[in-house]
Specification:
Blueprint: E1 2-6, H1 10-22, E2 26-30, H2 33-39, E3 47-51, H3 59-67, E4 74-79, E5 94-97, H4 102-118, H5 122-128
Parallel strand pairs: 1-2, 1-3, 3-4, 4-5
Length: 129
């Protein structure tokens, strides 16, 4: 599974990227929301993990722009804030509180399993073609 990870905190980004790669997933990382929007490729990324509170755009705004390229993009929004309200009900995502723990890894596994069952995981499609 290929993950695009977005967090403006370099230390958090590095730690999450290491943990994701230790789980066996490929991970591209971005320190800025605008870089993430440019770097996101529907044909490459199965899921986006996006910090909520960042300069210039928040995590929901980044997700909205990514979903303009791929409405089916699976996403996990992460935040240290406890009072985030969903800014849109029509765009499903998983919302997790920092610091991330087992719930984060469980969410990634569930996304992976559902993608395998639906036949939508990019790495599986590439291997078949």
């Amino acid at each position: 599974m290929n993950i695009l990870l977005v967090d403006d905190d370099a230390g958090s980004l590095l730690g999450m990227k290491f943990a994701i790669e230790m789980m066996g997933y490929a991970c591209d990382d971005c320190l800025s929301p605008l870089e993430a929007i440019e770097k996101y490729l529907p044909e490459r990324h199965d899921v986006a993990v996006i910090d909520y509170q960042m300069p210039s755009l928040n995590g929901f705004e980044v997700l909205q722009k990514m979903r303009s390229k791929n409405p089916a993009l699976k996403a996990i929004i992460i935040s240290g804030c406890i009072n985030i309200k969903a800014e849109t009900e029509s765009q499903p995502y998983i919302l997790l509180k920092k610091p991330l723990g087992d719930d984060f890894f469980q969410a990634l596994k569930e996304i992976e399993i559902s993608s395998i069952q639906a036949g939508t995981m990019l790495s599986l499609r590439e291997n078949v073609e």
